[in-house]
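Let us practice reading a record.
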Amino acid sequence: MNTKSQFGLAGLLCLISLGAFAQTAFDSKTVQTSRSVGKQVSDDSIDLRQQVKSQEVVSGNLLQSTTIKPREQQVVVANRHDQYFTIYDADVELLSDLDGDGYHHALNVIFDVDVDYDGATLYAKLYLSREGGPWIQYTTTDLFHIFGDDAGDAYEVTTELIDGYPPGYYALLVEIYSLNHVDMVASEIFDHHNLGKDITLEDLNRDEGFVFEEVEVSVSHGGGSFSLFFWLLLVQVVIAARGVLTLSPRKTIIIKKDTSGLRSFFPTRVAKTHSTR
């Protein structure tokens, strides 16, 4: 590979690296937004999949606590010794994969909270974590009531992820709070280990298709502005053109007229001259 080809390849790799860096910086500043609606499973008067479309879009909140423990180490936290809460069962249903890539922009979460005796008024906070990343709270449920170990008081939440959720494998964290307790009374992490399936998610904007967002770059010499996409395209065209010229054999063709009056083509030859003195 000659020097010019090496320069062109190096320039192209540099552009790719800069593009990846810019995308990473963009993703780190992207606000995660979603909309959710919930109800107790036994309530047949509400269609969550239809109602979620009319809900207000909210921004996710980073979980401030750093004390989240692995599933096998989690314990119930409560300030009343006479009630003991557990998340008896839970399931995650993936919804809406518009582009057919295996990543869904909506999910339905069902969980059943039990208390050892009597009843309680609860609410839940739900979080998502992408491949070991930070936990982002995406919704807080309304108040709901449970009675002992009744299976009919299970609660479900349908959520549509709007923006800020790159394609990946996610884990779900459910935290349960009671009006009769100061602190969280139960929590559980759900992922492929205890669900038996992967939670593969992405946001609606990515599920609908890739949209290139142009970034305007001001140019001081020229009295105007051009998009970053235009400049990257122009540089890539120049690099490609230089590569073609570099790899193409260079010949100079001359046209001579023969005695028959027809045109014939000959490659340039440098004639040796001999001087005689």
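A brief commentary: The first helix runs from residue 3 to 29.
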